Amino acid sequence: MATEMAGLARFEMLQVADAVAREKSIEPELVLEAMEQAITHAAKRKYGQEHDIRAEIDRDTGEIRVMRYLEVADPVENDATQITLNEALERNPAAQAGDYIAINAYLPRNDKTFARLDALRRAINNKTGRAVTLGFGPRFLHSTGQLHKGGGNN
Question: Are 110 and 78 in contact (CB under 8 A)?
Fold first, then answer.
């Protein structure tokens, strides 16, 4: 997969999330996830629902990253979600058709584990330029496995 990104430094986002979490007596992570969903929704409304757009808020800096994921495909069947191998190679010389990395963690699901795995996911993405998915198993094992493996009958 190829990724198009835009980033903004916004430490204030973390402060707002923390204030809302304290006011509502909920975990700050829930507020940040809701903010990411809202930003993703807004980006999809602006650029089109057919695009695979995802927003992330860095838990340390507050940086907002809005990414459009494109699958490397040959031939391209959907211009909104796919890119040719030649186009991908122009962006990332190591790209291959269908490229992405999946982390399916069979670990306790808690804030500390998620934060460490998310940092790992981001580091892998930054180092390789490839899309990286993160999920926990065995919760929703079949659907999570489909997300990470791809395809309908795997």
Answer: no
Interstrand relation of 2-8 and 64-72 (parallel, antiparallel or unpaired): antiparallel
Q: Which residues of 119-137 are buried (b: 16+ CB within 10 A; e: fewer)?
A: eebbebbeeebbbbbbbbe
Q: Residues of the chain whose pLDDT is less than 50?
A: 2, 4-9, 139-149, 151-154
The answer to whether the CB of 81 falls within 8 A of the CB of 12 is: no
Question: Which helix or strand (DSSP H or E) is residue 16 part of?
Answer: helix 11-24
CB contact set of 82 (below 8 Å; sequence gap of 6+): 70, 71, 72, 73, 76
User: What percentage of the chain exceeds 90 in pLDDT?
Assistant: 10
- Alpha-carbon torsion, ordered 55, 10, 129, 92, to 10 deg: 100
pLDDT in tens, 35-75: 989 988 998 888 888 888 888 888 888 888 888 877 777 78
- Distance between CA 114 and CA 29 in Å, rounded? 10
Parallel/antiparallel/unpaired status of strands 52-57 and 64-72: antiparallel
